[in-house]
Amino acid sequence: MKLIRFSTVNQPDLPKLGFLLNNQVAEIHALSDRGAVYPGDMAGLIKLSAEKKIDLLAIQKHAFLDQQKVHALDQINLLAPMIPSTILCSGSNYHSHNKEKANAPLSGKEPEFFVKTGDCVVGPNEAIIYDPLLTEKLDSETELAIVIGKPGRHIPVESALDHVFGYTIVNDVTARDRQVRFKPDGSTWYELGRGKAFDSSAPLGPCIVTTDEIRDPQTLSLRTRINGELRQSGNTGDMIWTCAELVHFFSINFTLRPGMVIITGTPAGTAWSSDKSLGGNWMPPEDGEKLVPAKGYNQPGDIVESEIEGIGTLINPVSRFNPV
Q1: Which alpha helices (DSSP H) does the chain contain, by range?
Q2: What's this model's pTM, rounded to 2 decimal places?
């Protein structure tokens, strides 16, 4: 099933949870006789589901019966389906991406571990902010995002996917001129703080798809289009570390809790690949769809589309920072 967070024209300031089915949205306004979740609390819903205190399939069926609480998709405002407190990030996790860029010493040897927070999140159709005081090399990366359901620490790889509630899309927006640094000998190191975590650096959505619809997360195609140009086209089968291995990896540091998110890296085709000054090495794909090499980084007025098979398309414009 597909879960969303949204607002209506009549109540624009009240986030609601809903089911998305065939371009229809049903509000989740009564979960069960045993409890309820405050509208907008996706993490709470995930926790109740993981604890088997609610039956989401039964609730979905009931929700679509109340026509007063059913809306056409084009009549509501989609929000980020959740605002996770913690987004655990794995960089350099696709073979194809590692071939197109300057690599730091750990690239391809272990997951490059960095963190984003809920402050980075924007939803569908919300702006990615171009702030020239922060960066002039604003890049986009379409990534499969794992949404944790069942809590755990030191989770074995073999049972790791049992801890997954579902999947969504995150655009790992990156300030490349903050991220990529060079030593005097020409070797590369990454500053994964200012380069990765800032306002609007984690567009998230448009929905969360539960694991009953995505049984194997290593078989999904993903694409990025900028102003209609196909920049990225890859498959999650190209990951160096699988989703199960990443759940295991991050659970060594953290107790993974319902609603936490893990993002899993991006394939070839980033704007970085066309930037020789930062070690880019764009190469046309040997097979698959024809890509358009970037002529530069994201600019105000651009439209970024991040698409993953089975989930949908996350669309965000790029807008110049406007101080209040």
Answers
A1: 42-50, 56-63, 95-99, 176-179, 243-253
A2: 0.95
